# Entry
Amino acid sequence: MTGHDHSHDHSHDHSSELGEMDLRVRALESVLTQKGYIDPAALDALIDTYQTRIGPRNGARVVARAWVDQTFHDWLMADATAAIASLGYTGRQGEHMVAVANTDDQHHMVVCTLCSCYPWPVLGLPPTWYKSAPYRSRAVKDPRGVLADFGTTLPETTRIRVWDSTAEVRYLVIPQRPVGTEGWSEDELAALVSRDSMIGTRVVEAPSARSTT
Amino acid sequence: MTYTTHADLGGQPGFGPVTPEPEGELFHGAWEPRALALTLAMGATGSWNIDTSRAARETLPDYRDLSYYQIWLGALEQLMLQRGQVFADEIASGQMHHPAAPVARVLQAENVPAVLAKGSGTERPASAPARFAVGQAVRMHLGRVDHHTRLPAYVQGKRGTIEHIHGAHVFADANAQGLGEQPQWLYTVVFDEAELWGEGTPRQNLAVSVDAWESYLEPAA
# Structure
């Protein structure tokens, strides 16, 4: 399809507007349903789960709790799976969790050079870049170059530690709490924490001004 | 048999910059969430394990030309074709032409939250004490492996240090080949950048770790 001049001749059959991949997936889903291997309603439930329930806001709550509660922080460092489960985040692709906390001296970054291993219960589905060849190839050799792609610059004196998740252990980066957030509530803090900061490609920036509510 | 993975990318040159994307951007096309859900739902039938599916993905001949969910979909089709669960004429037509091959279980919508929340942990009881201790120097296996493995090429033959012991875990290499779980001790092994990339590579003040099963390791002199 050329894309610009199709408006006059295309039919109103919706399938004509679907791409090759849409048709291929639809055909497969149809066959698997006919064969009784899958429940289409389960597909809807799976998609809804990762679009609305399980995503990086979960991880942001873990980070915010660790920032305000030293006991939780210590538990998280000692047994991340249990500490994270206490907030209700468990299961698929997060069965064995390790939390790694950034400091002035050390910055953590997580990659899976072999596929796309990622802590789903706390971060949801990985972004495209995390699964891409540029990130997977460069994160272990040129992490400062990767950080530059995200606009992140760290002092040369900060040691970078890259965790290549080659087995079933999943890593969550606990970014540094920015200055100027003293007295903030857990909810306010969680709102500051980006997905990328929990993978380690960004830091959590100091807020320019706190909302005066 | 010659096993070739196209997925072992650590340290390889020439892939260009990373393109960040906004946090809410999960899918790029209506088919992607369906492909994801199909893969998860078929995985839940118990017809194969996660290591078998990783092997199916990384050996797709056109791996590097495919988007990630295209890789997942291609591997899903392969796994089902190999098991006689679907046939090429069915994939092409979207119609069932052959009898179904029974699956162990079917994921029902009402069970999705519980199945996801439970996951499938890989830690198992150990049958022997751990061979290595935290702080010990080890050298990673070097040489061709003719099956799925989780030992990346960039650490093969390199000297590292045991940093953490994770308990005994299902051994991916064996599990991928259908040889059972054969659990082994799993270690985090950390490497200095000069050991991995040589003295000629500009220093980044960097250390890199991998998680490695015991049979990937030998004591370092």
User: Anything to note?
Assistant: Chain B touches chain A through 91 residues (CB under 8 Å).
